[in-house]
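Lab notebook, bench 4. Still working through the backlog of constructs that have no structural model yet. Next entry is a single chain of 304 residues. Request: give me the structure tokens for it.
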Amino acid sequence: MTTQNRRRAGLMVMVLLVATLAPASRSSFGDSEENAPRNPAPKALEAEGITEPSLVTTVGSKSGGIVEKVHVKDGDPVKAGATLVTLESQSESLTAEMSRLKAQDESQIRNAELVRDYRKAEFDATDALFKKKVASEQDRRKALAQYQIAVLDVEVAKLQQKHARLTYQRDKAILDAMTLLAPNDGFVTERLVDPGEGIQPLQPVVEITTLDPLYVVVNLSDDALGRVKKGAQVAVIIQQLGNQRLEGRVIFVSPVVDYASKTFKIKISLPNPELKIPAGLKARAVFGNKAKHAPEAPPPTAAD
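Model written out:
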């Protein structure tokens, strides 16, 4: 075989190899494109925050006065409506009692009604005599006027009775305001007055903190806009409690992005019915589909 023939034979072998391997290469390349994820699922969002009381209420007095008794101390649990502080109220109590007696006294109305009924009978008799030409027109007019005045006197007595009832309601409200009640459930976190102390109107006397539920407020980057919805479940991991994983719920998604930090606020409600979780603990919130299976935080070190 000549050198030229050998070259032709080698070229034909190379062509055959290329033709054989090309479909397989295209198939392998196509498979890699199809198997490659086009839109990988976003990672679960995570952010850190602090457990906060859901409500802190400072109770004050409407009218002011002298503190007679403080019924609570720091750390006491209280229910809504519980008595916190009473002010000296002897004068207000007497005023309210007098108003109550006047409000319940209906003698003026009954007296006016008796006079009205008498004047009505008197007018009827005079009118009958007038029709028989026994009584004069002047007698009839006089009897009618007296009857009409008696009718008005009944209405005046009823208005006075209504005024007395409203006066009692006002005086009773003033008396009730001398007893300061808890507006909501919680713990007394600060007692601000002592017995015998004089206080001014609206002066704070007791601070009540509500820990059920707790709030966890976190900030997310603006690239997470739209990924967290109100009502979504959130895994909340508290490292100081042995990496305890709890379930919270988003109750607020801020519609405003902070320009400087490029973040927006998320508020999470965290049930705390047994009040075992204090406020002020560091908490890690995990959002998204992986929230229920969020990895636990590393155990706290001695330094923590």
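Notes after review: The chain is about 35% helix and 30% strand. Residues 46-54+210-293 form a domain with the Elongation Factor Tu (Ef-tu); domain 3 fold (CATH 2.40.30.170). Flag for follow-up if needed.
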